[in-house]
Amino acid sequence: MKKSGKYIISKKIDGVFTTLYDVYRFLLRFFKEVLFPPYEFKELVKQCYDIGYKSLPLITLTGFITGLVFTKQSRPSLAEFGAASWLPSLVSIAIIRALAPLVTALIAAGKVGSQIGAELGSMKVTEQIDAMEVSGTNPFKFLVVTRMIATTFMIPILAIYTGVVALAGSFINVTQNEQTSFSSFVESSLQNISFLDLFSSVIKATLFGFTIGAVGCYQGYNSSKGTEGVGKAANSAVVVSMFLIFIEEILVVQVVNAIR
Amino acid sequence: METSENKRSVIVGIFVFLGIVLFVAGIFTLAGQQKRFVKSIELNAIFDNVAGLKVGNNVWFSGVKIGTVKKIDFYGTSQVKIKMNVEQEAQKYIHKNATAQISSEGFIGNRIIVIEGGNINLPVVESGDRLHVKKALSTDAMLEDLQANNRNLIEITGNLKVISGKMANGEGAIGALLTDSLMAGNLKNTMAGLNSASQNINRTAVSLSAFSNKLNTKGGLVDELLTDTGVFSQLEGSVGNIRKLSVAAASLSEDLSTAGQKLNDKNNAIGVLLNDQESAASLKKTLTNLETSSQKLDENLEALQHNFLLRGFFRKKAKEEEKMK
Question: What domain of life does the UniProt record list for this protein's source (chain B) (predicted)?
Fold first, then answer.
């Protein structure tokens, strides 16, 4: 948003704070719109389907490979001092505490965030959003709220799938090398996992989902400059959401460790 | 369009439902593993040092997980009070004088509390009871002992170094043995001699063994002596008789000695005969006279046989003797 007159600090710094203010207003509007009817359930289900269900194959493959490869790569270090039996415990801690929500969020940021940014950006530059307003439909509620809610709810569910599939990949590798039974694997996997780990992981995924939705919608909804702006919106949606995901990861880990 | 939307809704519903089911299943599995749904009792223990024990660490009894550490608080000036949840199922195995000890799941594993059951004659613990604490073997103590061993090892190797140096220089008996070829030759000969002696000893031992086997042969004298009580009593009787006989022999010998002494005296007939030379000469003369007399008597009797008065009697007697044959 352009400001007339003199800049308070400098053009760039003022621009950063202006963007933050715009984000604040965007989020405030979201919370206002989400609480009050009318609710766009059909669009919400459609978004959940697109964001959640359609991402499942990609997430499943990524999660499986993550679990398998992480186990395979961790084995030599543990086997070196005869602690290969700790692999399930180590891998499950890594997957449940960090990898499942993080990998899911990063994949979703790439797939869903860019999709949302490009979709809303193209609608913006082609003035479809303005047309919706003219036709009496609240474009923010229909386009933004549904997508943000969908990402907020679907990413944690995808993270749960990722966790399960990654542990399955880990189990396959462990059972191939150590002939560990499934029950023994589950037993040792959950040995060092607490409820705090489970809930913090789900909460973290929820936060990541909200971030992906918010960043994608914000970038798309506020895109400009024609088709170039659409590409920029899609790109920014991915880059900014990934950056914020890592920042949030650090913050959440600090908070969880303080509680632990 | 409507059908497509319905289908999409169902798919999303199933997708969300399965996600939630997996999450709930994870929670229940975790809760089951952590015995969250199992009835438990609370036990306490006060340790001087918990060595990094954390809330949620396991409590073991006979190698089986029976609970978890619930709370860790400081107690008194520097002690630590541990509250632990223990399965009610395991309560019957833990008695009043049971002990709790800080241990480890492995060499580098998590800290755990190990409970030892105590005396079975005592009643079982109840919720809120405080367990006795058994001091764990700390790594620091082990390292201290190891350090002492290291110092000893250094001293021993130092001594060995000195000894081996002396040996290499030919000092002392072993050094001389190693360096002096003559001494080594002597030692070799000695060893050969010892070897031969040991072979002889072996042979002797074999012979002794054979001999002892013979002694132990059933029915042998030694075997009878050692095993048959009848033979022993007979032998004992014989020894008694020999003892009596020796007493009698001693008495006889004494009598003989007395008699000998008397024979040496001249106050009796035999003593006079044996010791008095005059009497002996007189007796000798008497005997000579007797011999002469008997010869003369013999001649006289011969003459009588040829006398006419007695000749008939002798002829008659000779005929009767002839008939008797």
Answer: Bacteria
